[in-house]
Amino acid sequence: MGAQEMDLKAAIAKAESLNASFLAGDRRAEAEHVGALLEEFSKIDMMDFTSFGEPEPAGPGVSTLTVHSTDETMVLIAFLKANAVMAAHDHKDFIGGMRVLEGSLKVETFAYVQGQRPDKMDIAQLKREDSAQMAAGETASILSNQSQIHQIIAGKEGAVFLDVYTMFNSPGSCRFYDTSGSETNTQEIEAKPLIDIAIH
Fold this sequence. Notes:
By secondary structure, the protein is of the alpha+beta class. Helices cover 16% and strands 48% of the residues. It has helices at 3-24, 30-40; strands spanning 56-57, 62-69, 73-80, 85-89, 94-112, 124-135, 139-142, 149-167, 172-178, 188-199. Strand 2 and strand 3 (73-80) form a beta hairpin. The longest helix has 22 residues, at 3-24. The chain starts with a helix and ends with a strand.
């Protein structure tokens, strides 16, 4: 086993420990917890992930590889080809962070106008909130008190990023949306739900 694989396995083991402690506590210090998770993966750079399996298609120009998954912890790698788009999606019942390993990307964030995900797979009213550019080595957090809907767009050289999650319930779920619907002058979008995917 190479040094990079050992570093990744060590980071995953530490993440399992951090998640167990966090989930057994009061769960209020989410930002500090996710910051600690991302710190454990700060040494992880682009590497050969083939020993962890083969990436699976997750949309045009997008594939993902789950390198670790338990009831409390999930770590995955996302591979985006040049200018590929990972469709807008939310994160239900889990929080976490992302670290860009290679290339660059833009993260566009949205919020539910109605305050939360619709119970059924109905058209959702989304409001565009923000966008941010990220380069290799940069990180971002996904917290339960933040807008949890984001769309990820790779730069012209493509992008690879790592996600590490803390699961409140297993499975969690991501609901993906088509945000190409008409946008009003209030930046609200009628977004068509595409699919719910169980995360575990």
